[in-house]
Write a structure and sequence with these properties.
The protein is mainly α and 123 residues long. It has seven helices and three strands. Helices cover 68% and strands 11% of the residues. Strands 1-3-2 form a three-stranded antiparallel beta sheet. A hairpin with a 2-residue loop joins β2 and β3.
Length: 123
């Protein structure tokens, strides 16, 4: 249900929630490495590669190779989505708050992040 809510909200941006979160990370750090994106998003390298390829095809990001690193930059077209993506995120937070209460909605977001981090670090 939470995933469905996120998909509904981010549909307005034309992106999946995961693609939108990837772009948000690029907005925060232009020239971010593919490895860093995987760590932030808690995704396997192959999944990050597929997401990046889709966003390159859409003209939202570019990929530059620097030695062994693959660095990701937002294009002007991608940068134009920063505000719409933020609006989608705020709308999603509002929906969580309407269902759960504002404090509980924020706690849910934090809890989901912590759970993802724990699962990622299980060896």
């Amino acid at each position: 249900m939470i995933t469905k809510m996120a998909e509904d909200e981010f549909a307005a941006s034309g992106l999946s929630p995961t693609s939108a979160f990837l772009l948000m990370a690029v907005f925060e750090k232009e020239g971010i490495s593919q490895k860093e994106l995987g760590e932030i998003l808690h995704l396997q390298p192959s999944t990050v590669t597929r997401l990046i390829e889709k966003l390159i095809i859409k003209g939202l990001i570019t990929n530059r190779v620097d030695g062994r690193l693959s660095l990701i930059y937002a294009t002007d077209k991608g940068k134009a989505l920063e505000e719409p993506i933020n609006e989608c995120w705020n709308s999603l937070r509002s929906r969580y708050a309407a269902l759960l209460g504002e404090k509980e909605g924020d706690e849910l977001s934090l809890y989901l992040y912590k759970v993802s981090d724990r699962i990622e670090n299980i060896e």
